[in-house]
Design goal:
Length: about 70
């Protein structure tokens, strides 16, 4: 996975758009945005040795996405 975006439907029916972007120097930028919501959760990760899987990206936002 290099640069990728996808949409996942959560169990409660909300749709979330995820973006994963590889950055120079083993870094990555990941985001999550719930459909219809202006808030975008974003994280810059340092020292990413291997590209993250979709599941790893989604798990980084589990706490924020569990809130309603």
């Amino acid at each position: 996975m290099s640069d990728e975006e996808w949409i996942k439907t959560l169990e409660d029916g909300r749709r979330v758009k995820f973006i994963y972007q590889e950055l120079p120097e083993n870094r990555a930028f990941i985001t999550a945005q719930i459909a219809g919501n202006e808030v975008v959760y974003s994280i810059v990760l340092d020292d990413v040795q291997n590209p993250l899987s979709r599941q790893e990206v989604e798990s980084r936002f589990a706490s924020e996405l569990s809130k309603k």
